[in-house]
Amino acid sequence: MLLAALLISAAAASPGELHLGASAGLHQPLDGPMLFSWLAAPRAAWWPVPRWGLVGELGAIPGLELDDHGFQALEPRIGAALRPWPELAVGPHLGAGMGLASHQPDQRLNDVPSDLADRHLQAWAGLGAGWSAAPWLRVRADLRWSQGFGGDDPHRGATGLGAGLGFDLVQPLGEPPPPDRDGDGIPDPQDACPDQAGVLEEGGCPAPEPEPEPIPGIHPDDATIWVPHPHCEHSDAAHVAQAVERLDPEQRVVVSAPGYLPAFVQADQLPGLSLEAAPAQGALVIVASPGDLLLVDGVQVNPGDDGVALLNVPEGSHLVEVSGGGRRSVGKIAVSQGHVTWLRPQGAEPHHALFSAGSASLGAAERERIARFAEQRAGYGYVLQGGHSPEGAAATNAALALARAEAVREALIQAGVPEADIELQPIAAPTLDGDPNLQRCCLITPVPGGRP
Amino acid sequence: MSPLLLIILPVLQAAEYRVVHLGDSVETIAQALGEPALAADIRALNQIDADTQPAIGSLLELPITPGPPLVEQQGAVLHASGEVTATLPDQAPGPATPGLELPQGSTVCTGPGSYATLRLARSSGGLAHDDVNLLAETCLTLVSAVSRAAERSSVLRVESGSIAIRAADESPGTVVVETASGITTGRGGGFRVSREADATRTEALDAPVAVLGAGQEVAVGAGQGSRTATGQAPSPPVDLLLGTIPQRPQLDQPLRRPDFGWTAVEGALGYRVEIATSDDFSSIVAADGAPDPSWAPQLLFLPYRVQGLWWRVAAFDRVGFLGYPSEPRELVLPAGVGP
User: Fold this and answer.
1) Which chain B residues contact residue A285 at CB under 8 A?
2) Backbone dihedral angles phi then psi of residue B183, each to the nearest 5 degrees
């Protein structure tokens, strides 16, 4: 009882519920004859939370019979109790704990030696079911097992089983909990949606449906998206979501932005696309002649066998110097980021005078072109190199190539070029993979400064 | 900015224009609209007296007619290479960048060596559209762009330079090009209009056009051209030169030396070479003239961060008409160009 009183006093100052009640039933020692004894047990329990509680009980068995002797037993016990589903009106409960068993001989029944009185520790465990008949009343049925400690002594080693019916009077402790109709733990006065279970962040209303993951944009955000035929439309990076939604996932698009390398991707690759920053450089192709010396910003560069040099250089102005074949060309060239600039030094390019198959006669149009070529290069000398296509006899072809060079020399002289400024060189051997139409020609290479 | 820059805005006050052709009168035009009673509205809108008829080649504003709604549209800049400026109504000139919307009344100008492509009218809800290429040193004003269901109509004014109306892939739209010398109107695109010193040159490539000037109209068939001197009737149509065949650089041959060559066209006075970053030449990046069937520029400047480069060439005759372009041929950049 002292324990129960302590329990009650502790509970009184704490939140939760206080249960006061009693049970009555039968008790039977398991190792004795089947002589059911009445039992009664007033009880107090404190449930600080709906699911767990502490219980104190005083079991009284006025007619306990052990070893052919009658006893009056008092068994105060304490323990822990569990209600797995407190929200149910009818639900199970479990309990376990320790207690003290006090057995006093019942002199009214028989003459029992007084030294048979005993006190010993006892363990107990029980289960049962309860029904919350009213907010203040819970009716219960219990089944309890107990085991004494003390070896072979008939008291101390006793094992018993008790069953009973009882009730608990329920008294809420502390402030009565505010109403919470939807059971979401948020009191109705603070619940904006008292009839809908919700979350605190939304004031008691249901959490909103999670928004779909935003479609990540494109870096940089000033990029533009070009959707080619049949759409032929520009969109901007701020509208990636619409573009992805509207286009076939495999639709190829071009994403570009100033200062970045353009990307050619499928529409489904647009989200999160990050363009690669473009290095500020461009390409410079110097179209010189084989053997020319090339300097870019004072540094010699090596052209290919065809006299063409290709460089990737920083954006900006570059000094290009080409010399060879008696000429020298110096000039500044601007190179722009992302662009390729072909530079052909002035006057260095030869001209192909074309002939028909098997012919060494210049047409009127070609003759006119030769005259214009010479007119644009006053003061130049010319090296002529006749050519022919691969088919046909070698001797005939050689003669034909020479005749073509002679025809061009005559055209140049007619155009005002001094004969001394014209030089004929051996024919150029044709290649089988070349264009025969272009090989039926005479190569006219201008040389600055007059006589070659 | 809208996700698609070609916004189609239904506007009740959208203006639709119609060219007055040979044989047209206010009454026949109203009848063609399905409402003879609209003749009075046409006269009122265009301030035409009851006893007179509009001159051939004039542009009439049409009244609102029953049927599908007339939708006024904004144009847009599709491509701009070099120095291209746009002057929007009531605004100062600014750079014409791809995607820029062009309300009606906008003017776009290209500088030397600069090119642009503009989107004109677009069919309501469809993919059909009319586009115009602006060559270098061209100024163009978008007067009107409207659509009515699948039908669409654009009116342009060319102040200077040369434009090419691209052939429409889908249903044909009507494009009217107005210059100081006359009017060219075509359906389905595929024609060029160029301003000359005191004349306008029209070349019809893919579809016939009508050229109107000084109250006269000349039908110019596909493959023909006509010139309209200011204050004079359009010249009789002349045949355009046929296309040539590119020869150099050969297919798949890297462009180490920019030596271009093609077959000569009989009767050609010269040639015009164009290089673009698309095979439909909506994005021209370089163009030049050549007196011979070859072109070896001393300086050539091309972008390399592009999907590709294509070139084509067309011959022009002794009176300046530019003929059919050759088939586009792709250019291959030399290995090692770019990062």
Assistant:
1) 256, 334, 337
2) -130, 140
d(CA A161, CA A39): 11
The reply to whether B258 touches chain A by the CB within 8 Å rule is yes
pTM exceeds 0.80:
no
Taking the Cβ of residue B151 and every Cβ of chain A, the question of whether any pair is shorter than 8 Å is answered with no
* Residues on chain B touching A234 (C-beta within 8 angstroms): 5, 76, 78, 98-99
> What local confidence, expressed as pLDDT, does residue A12 receive?
52
Flag whether the ipTM exceeds 0.85: no
Q: At residue A45, what is the residue type? A: A
Chain B residues in contact with A306 by the CB 8 A cut-off are 256-257
Cis peptide before B249 (omega within 30 of 0): yes
CB atoms within 10 A of CB A21: 19
Q: Which residues of A touch B257 (CB under 8 A)?
A: 287, 306, 308, 342, 344
Partner-chain residue, chosen from A254, A261, A344, that has the shortest CB–CB distance to B296: A344
For B16-62, CATH number out of 2.40.50, 3.40.50, 3.10.350, 3.10.590 equals: 3.10.350
Q: How far is residue A382's CA from residue A419's CA, in Å, rounded to a whole number?
A: 10
pLDDT in tens, B72-123: 888 999 989 889 999 999 999 999 998 899 999 999 999 998 999 999 887 7
Which two three-digit tokens encode residue B248? 């150099």
Across the A:B interface, residue pairs with CB atoms under 8 Å apart total 122
Q: Do A437 and B247 touch (CB under 8 A)?
A: yes
Instruction: Provide, as residue numbers in chain B, all residues whose Cβ is less than 8 Å from the Cβ of A262.
Output: 305-306
Average confidence (pLDDT) over B211-224: 93
CA distance A424 to chain B (A): 24
Using one digit for the tens of pLDDT, what is the confidence trace for A256-311? Answer: 887 787 888 888 888 888 888 877 889 999 998 888 889 999 888 888 888 899 99
pLDDT tens across B116-129, in order?
999 988 776 656 78
> How many helices (H) and strands (E) in chain A?
5, 23
* Interchain CB distance below 8 Å, A312 and B338: yes
pLDDT in tens, B241-253: 999 999 989 888 9
**Contact at CB, A340 and B333, closer than 8 angstroms:** yes
| Arithmetic mean of pLDDT, A397-414 | 92
CATH class of B246-331: mainly beta
Tokens of B189: 């695109």
Q: Which two tokens stand for residue B332?
A: 């291959």
Burial group, residue B123, by CB count within 10 angstroms (0-12, 13-18, 19+): buried
- What is the SS3 assignment for A319? strand
Q: Hey, are the CB atoms on B301 and A341 less than 8 Å from each other?
A: yes
The CATH code for residues B71-239 is: 2.60.120.1440
Q: Is A20 helix (H, G, I), strand (E, B) or coil?
A: strand
| Contact flag A342-B299 (C-beta cutoff 8 Å) | yes
Q: Enumerate residues 13 to 72 of chain B having a beta carbon within 8 A of any beta carbon in chain A.
A: none
B214 compared with A63, residue with greater pLDDT: B214
Q: What residues of chain A lie within 8 A of the CB of B247, using their CB?
A: 435, 437-438
Per-residue pLDDT, A346: 66
| CA atoms of B114 and A386, how far apart (whole Å) | 41
A248 touches chain B (CB under 8 A): no
Q: Is B247 on the interface with A (CB under 8 A)?
A: yes
| Cβ-based neighbours of B31, under 8 Å, separated by 6 or more | none
- Rounded to an integer, the average pLDDT of B173-182 is 93
Kindly determine whether residue A285 and residue B337, on different chains, have CB atoms separated by under 8 Å: yes
Distance of CA B50 to the CA centre of its chain: 35
- The crossing angle, in degrees rounded to 10, of helices A394-414 and A364-375 is 60
Closest to B260 (Cα-Cα) out of A62, A260, A352? A352
What does the alpha-carbon distance between residue A379 and residue A400 come to, in Å, rounded to a whole number? 29
- The domain ranges of chain B are 16-62, 71-239, 246-331
